[in-house]
Design brief:
5-stranded parallel sheet, 345 residues, Arc Repressor Mutant, subunit A, 49% helix, Helicase, Ruva Protein, domain 3, Rossmann fold, alpha/beta
């Protein structure tokens, strides 16, 4: 009876302190993401520092939260701090806390810092590459000794925390330029996770896009909406320099403006179309006549879709007579009425 109550209280505590993301939140079946996920699970089982690297938007914080949630520390909080978001002069007090009267504007009762709050849990320092040089030896000491003093205080505070850091910068390059301490890098880089970019795991894009879309619809209480196959192909063929964050933005824009319950290529941002054209020009070399025909076909198709297949309006947009529109549509095999497709749910 007592054991069951303990388990119940433990479950409630996990729910209260749970991170938003778990290992199940990491979507993908590619070798690239599967390998990193396995490495993250191994990292979760121990107490050593973890350094997560990768381009902006790849999901570094997602991995940090998932590691904490899968670790023995999951009953205790994950304290987060973005090193780039805090002014340099306030960073020390944010990390280590301060005593009352430590500086003008300080809270009269003082304030615990992030390391203090992370006792028995984990602390996630995002954008660690933005940490000011003068703060780096102080962070190094805390990592080595697991003790510190509040700003304006004299009492030694000890904290049992697990550090997870992340950056999109090349820290070794920063070391060579004197912008990052080598000894701090070695202390941070005990377990290293390199998160692959989205273009390195394109096979995950259809699954990931549908997962994100479903999540957005649920969060915003929108009507159920799906991606058609042409849209999925367009997403797969794009390079995604902004990675998952950019994909999320594109899908949010699409569901905010789509009419109906199917997202088609026309519902996606224009720069995705431009990217497809550029790739087409790079991979297909033909005669000038072929290029002209391709451009005409594309212009007619776009005009018809934009006008909901109103031939008179489409011809007006194209600057041609409606009779010529019919001739060219027949020549290029373009449907003058929308084709009714049935899409699976």
């Amino acid at each position: 009876m007592l054991e069951s109550k303990v388990k119940l209280y433990e479950k409630e505590l996990i729910n209260l302190r749970s991170t938003r993301y778990t290992m199940d939140s990491i979507v993908g079946t590619s070798d690239a993401i599967t390998t990193v996920k396995q490495e993250a699970l191994k990292a979760a089982a121990n107490r050593f520092p973890v350094l997560i690297t990768g381009e902006s938007g790849t999901g570094k914080e997602l991995f940090a939260q998932a590691i904490h949630h899968a670790s023995p520390r999951k009953l205790y909080p994950l304290i987060r701090l973005n090193c780039a978001a805090i002014p340099a002069e306030l960073l020390e007090s944010e990390l280590f806390g301060y005593e009352k009267g430590a500086f003008t504007g300080a809270h009269r009762d003082g304030k615990p810092g992030k390391f203090e709050l992370a006792h028995r849990g984990s602390i996630f320092l995002d954008e660690i590459g933005e940490l000011p040089l003068k703060m780096q030896p102080k962070l190094l000491r805390v990592l080595e000794e697991k003790e510190f003093e509040r700003v304006g205080g004299t009492k030694i505070i000890r904290s049992d925390f697990r550090l997870i850091a992340a950056t999109n910068r090349n820290l070794e390059d920063m070391i060579s330029r004197g912008l990052f301490r080598r000894d701090l890098f070695y202390r941070l880089n005990v377990i290293s996770l390199q998160i692959p970019s989205l273009r390195e795991r394109k096979e995950d894009i259809p699954l990931l896009a549908r997962h994100l879309l479903k999540q957005m619809i649920w969060d915003a209480a929108f009507a159920e909406t799906h991606l058609d196959e042409d849209s999925v192909r367009m997403l797969v063929n794009y390079d995604w320099k902004g990675n998952v964050r950019e994909l999320t933005n594109v899908l949010e824009r699409a569901i905010s403006s789509v009419e109906g319950d199917i997202i088609r290529p026309d519902d996606l941002p224009f720069y995705l179309h431009r990217s497809q054209k550029k790739k087409g020009r790079q991979t297909q070399i033909g005669t000038l006549k072929q290029a002209q025909a391709m451009a005409e076909k594309e212009a007619i198709t776009m005009a018809l879709r934009k006008t909901n297949y109103n031939k008179a309006q489409a011809a007006k947009i194209l600057g041609i007579h409606r009779t010529l529109l019919y001739k060219k549509a027949s020549k290029y095999g373009i449907e003058l009425s929308p084709v009714q497709n049935v899409y699976p749910n």
